[in-house]
Write a sequence for this structure.
């Protein structure tokens, strides 16, 4: 262990200062443990690598949708509540964009739906759903929008692979650079 | 000391009565007599020795924006607009700073002793910082505006608070995010970062790493005191010049990643058209006359100082011009103070109103040459007809006209 630590330093000295400059400058802050990071990291990216173990189906999700209070704000069928609608009013429109800004329909990845239910729902009781319930609710919302069949079980392995209707039919994001126009060629 | 105070109060009260008695029947003070004392603020109002309050005669107030009440039926706060019509100087008082929440949220009551910021992901050394830790780092203090993407003028809006009140300007103090990322050892593979708040919805947005390394501030202070709860106490990420939603309040976690993370807020920014998408990050050059503005009234013809605010997400404002004849002739406005990058700047312009009906408006250019357009110019660029249905793509930075009627009343020129 000791020699492993000495070697990079010796190497850095040989190579000059830049390698040393990679180290912390102020030495302020505490290193969190792996468990601590896992517990706080609720960002689920498109690869789904952060997803916890668990599984759920649309049938289980339909039950959770009623028992966890979702229906109270979002309506019994995902339409007609005070909160944003969760099912398209025009589900057969061939243009996905025209079906409405509905998370379980327009999201390019199923992980976006999972992430939001997990971090932000239900209102005022956020963080109380188990991973199984989040998988089930995700499956239910994808099922009522005709994204997956009713009997499909979503889990840690297959969630990120769900093919969403939007696919890659959305605009690429700008490559932002400081001190440049917000849109190249746009004078305003 | 304790024994003296009642005596002094007694004296003051008797003195006041005496003075009142003397003025009875006397319309004007006699020659050489001191003018009578104004009424005093009685006693020491609870807590105001320790923390001051404004005069009861000053009633400038924020209002819920866009017809949605705050707090709403659930107790959630949503969008609340700043009274720009009363603004003087460039600083928005913290109590009047606009605020908005990600989807409508409860304000978290955070104990700063318990609060930490964790930075992790594509870094050599993940680190957790307490508030005390963060205050040990070299700090920066800068003026910056924040503006909500929904800050959009409409024909229905009557006041500048309704057309432009979802922006404010404050002095922010904190640590540069780049300082913290260097402390953690940013990996070359990190291209985006996700910032997350501690409110119950845990609002999170993906932002480009170039922005993090340029000028983002992890801010713990606002206008010389701790950041207010509505604005993110104890910690807020400042992302100068980007739309308001990126300025993550109640900041608790930053994750370095190698792709756009497509969280809920990111999903909200998706668009079909790449041009519109590009316009939804950095805010364009924008200005507005705040005095005189909608629902105010000029008491008569004569001299007025037109004043207003100008800002841009592209840098500092370079020039502001004012027209008092409906846009035919433009006069250079004067800056009060030096315009700062991504901050409101105050402009003024002297004006002699001849009492005739007219329209006043302002336009600006920023340091990288972007110019504030009229709505017609924007419609022309997008090849769209300019009519009642036209909506400015991205954040609306169009010129705001105010109509002055012969009776001195000021109304929205878009109406």
């Amino acid at each position: 262990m000791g020699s492993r630590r000495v070697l990079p330093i010796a190497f850095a000295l040989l190579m000059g200062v830049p390698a040393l400059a990679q180290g912390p400058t102020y030495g302020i802050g505490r290193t969190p443990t792996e468990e601590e990071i896992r517990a706080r990291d609720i960002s689920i990216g498109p690869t789904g690598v952060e997803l916890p173990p668990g599984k759920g189906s649309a049938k289980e999700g339909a039950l959770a949708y009623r028992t966890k209070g979702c229906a109270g704000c979002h309506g019994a069928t995902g339409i007609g509540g005070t909160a944003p609608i969760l099912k398209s009013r025009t589900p057969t429109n061939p243009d996905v964009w025209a079906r409405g800004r509905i998370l379980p329909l327009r999201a390019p990845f199923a992980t976006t739906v999972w992430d939001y239910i997990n971090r932000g729902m239900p209102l005022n009781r956020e963080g109380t759903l188990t991973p199984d319930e989040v998988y089930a609710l995700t499956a239910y919302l994808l099922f009522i929008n005709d994204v997956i069949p009713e009997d499909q079980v979503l889990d840690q392995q297959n969630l990120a692979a769900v093919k969403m209707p939007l696919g890659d039919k959305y605009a690429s994001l700008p490559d932002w650079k400081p001190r440049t126009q917000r849109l190249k060629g746009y004078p305003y | 000391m304790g024994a003296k105070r009642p005596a002094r109060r007694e004296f003051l009260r008797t003195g006041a009565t005496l003075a009142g008695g003397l003025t009875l029947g006397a319309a004007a003070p006699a020659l050489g007599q001191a003018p009578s004392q104004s009424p005093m603020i009685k006693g020491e109002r609870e807590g105001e020795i320790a923390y001051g309050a404004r005069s009861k005669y000053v009633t400038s107030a924020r209002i819920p924006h866009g017809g949605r009440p705050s707090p709403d039926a659930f107790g959630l706060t949503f969008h609340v607009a700043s009274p720009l019509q009363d603004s003087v100087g460039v600083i928005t008082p913290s109590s009047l700073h606009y605020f908005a929440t990600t989807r409508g949220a409860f304000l978290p009551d955070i104990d700063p002793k318990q609060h930490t910021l964790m930075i992790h992901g594509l870094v050599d050394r993940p680190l957790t910082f307490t508030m005390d830790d963060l205050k040990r780092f070299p700090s920066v203090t800068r003026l910056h505006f924040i503006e909500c993407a929904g800050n959009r003028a409409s024909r229905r809006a009557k006041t500048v608070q309704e057309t432009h009140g979802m922006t404010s300007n404050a002095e922010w103090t904190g640590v540069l995010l780049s300082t913290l990322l260097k402390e953690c050892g940013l990996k070359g593979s990190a291209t985006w970062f996700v910032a997350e708040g501690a409110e119950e919805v845990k609002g999170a947005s993906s932002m480009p790493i170039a922005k993090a390394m340029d000028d983002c501030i992890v801010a713990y202070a606002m206008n010389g005191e701790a950041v207010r709860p509505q604005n993110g106490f104890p910690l807020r990420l400042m992302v100068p010049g980007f739309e308001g939603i990126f300025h993550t309040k109640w900041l608790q976690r930053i994750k370095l990643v190698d792709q756009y993370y497509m969280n809920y807020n990111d999903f909200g920014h998706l668009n079909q058209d790449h041009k519109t998408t590009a316009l939804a990050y950095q805010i364009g050059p924008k200005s507005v006359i705040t005095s005189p503005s909608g629902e105010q009234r000029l008491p008569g013809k004569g001299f007025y100082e037109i004043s207003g605010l100008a800002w841009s997400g592209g840098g500092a404002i370079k020039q502001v011009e004012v027209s008092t004849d409906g846009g035919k002739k433009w006069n250079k406005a004067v800056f009060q103070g030096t315009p700062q990058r991504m901050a409101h700047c105050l402009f003024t312009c002297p004006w002699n109103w001849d009492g005739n009906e007219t329209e006043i408006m302002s336009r600006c250019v920023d340091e990288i040459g972007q110019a504030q357009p009229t709505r017609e110019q924007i419609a022309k660029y997008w090849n769209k007809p300019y009519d009642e249905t036209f909506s400015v793509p991205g954040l609306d930075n169009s010129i705001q006209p105010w109509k002055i009627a012969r009776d001195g009343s000021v109304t929205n020129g878009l109406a």
Chain A has seven helices and two strands. Chain A touches chain B through 53 residues (CB under 8 Å).
